[in-house]
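Lecture notes, continued. The same structure-token format from the folding unit now serves as the input rather than the output. Read the line below as a description of shape only.
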């Protein structure tokens, strides 16, 4: 039975460069690019959490302002506003459910891929899986935190998940860019990563 390799799971991500370590010498350029992309992704997710915190500019705790018609007194207009809950009722439940389905459908696959990659022998190959898993869990936490703290209408939750997907897609877009600029770099990188042998279970070893 053919053994699955790291590139079979993480097909098109810049994080594959973290698995390039021929003769135990890291690919400095590849590692630097991968780590910069990872830092950028985590930084954007951290900013979402910061904005949705009680001291953040986007914090609303699920309430939206509602203002009535202005009243006039002594020639001056007075605007009266109040906060109303915007995430209640069956409509809110539907949009929360839709948000979770979309969020998990785009993150669970990478979590599973990362866990499978972690079973590979080399530390470098494990690192690819660790980065994938951490990124997805941070993304899930940041999204749920932002939705809980900053979203006023249920439909807005789904819209913000769409923004999250763009953030999670950065590593793949960077992979595409490098592949267009230097296809031989990607080919060499994948060859180096695929040289690592996965850990076999006892049953697989007997077969």
């Amino acid at each position: 039975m053919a053994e699955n390799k790291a590139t079979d799971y993480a097909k098109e991500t810049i994080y594959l460069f973290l698995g390039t370590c021929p003769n135990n010498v890291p690919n400095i350029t590849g590692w630097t690019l991968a780590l910069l992309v990872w830092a950028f992704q985590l930084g954007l997710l951290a900013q979402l959490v910061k904005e949705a915190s009680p001291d953040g500019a986007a914090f609303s705790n699920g309430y939206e302002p509602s203002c009535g018609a202005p009243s006039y007194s002594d020639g001056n207009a007075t605007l009266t506003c109040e906060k109303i809950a915007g995430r209640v009722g069956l409509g809110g439940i539907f949009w929360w459910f839709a948000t979770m389905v979309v969020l998990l459908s785009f993150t669970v696959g990478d979590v599973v891929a990362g866990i499978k990659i972690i079973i590979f022998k080399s530390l470098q190959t494990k690192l690819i899986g660790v980065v994938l898993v951490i990124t997805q869990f941070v993304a899930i936490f940041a999204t749920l935190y932002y939705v809980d703290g900053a979203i006023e209408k249920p439909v807005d939750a789904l819209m913000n998940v769409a923004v999250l997907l763009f953030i999670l897609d950065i590593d793949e877009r960077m992979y595409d860019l490098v592949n267009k600029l230097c296809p031989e770099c990607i080919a060499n990188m994948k060859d180096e990563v695929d040289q690592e042998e996965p850990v076999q279970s006892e049953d697989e070893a007997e077969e």
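Point for the exam: The chain has one domain: 6-60+87-206.
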